[in-house]
Automatic annotation (TrEMBL):
Domain of life: Eukaryota
Pfam families assigned to the protein according to its UniProt record, in alphabetical order: rve
Database matches in InterPro entries: Integrase_cat-core, Retrotran_Ty1/copia-like, RNaseH-like_sf, RNaseH_sf
GO BP, sorted A to Z: DNA integration
Classification of source organism: Eukaryota, Viridiplantae, Streptophyta, Embryophyta, Tracheophyta
Domain Integrase catalytic residues, every copy: 1-82
The protein's name: Integrase catalytic domain-containing protein
Gene Ontology MF annotations: nucleic acid binding
């Protein structure tokens, strides 16, 4: 994960793609506790682990605006692809 403002990068080893949502929740909790700010936007590609209903529903319920890149346009991932 990359913070576009600070350019800080977090890397996680994930054994199964099904674990992405739980890793995101842990990361979100850690960041919000450290910074005392809440996550407002999230940009992801369209991999299946990011378009699952539970991921989309969670973001919607928690006021996180989702931006998903278009298929075949990795340059939209910005800093994460540099």
């Amino acid at each position: 994960m990359v913070d576009n403002f600070s350019r800080k990068v977090w890397s996680f080893f994930i054994k199964h793609k099904d674990d992405v949502f739980d890793v995101f929740l842990d990361w979100k909790t850690m960041i919000e506790k450290k910074t005392e700010k809440r996550i407002k936007t999230l940009r992801t590609d369209n991999c299946l682990e990011f378009v699952e209903k539970k991921f989309t529903k969670y973001c919607s319920k928690n006021g996180i605006v989702r931006y998903r890149t278009y298929v075949g346009r990795p340059q939209q991932n910005g800093v994460a692809r540099e």
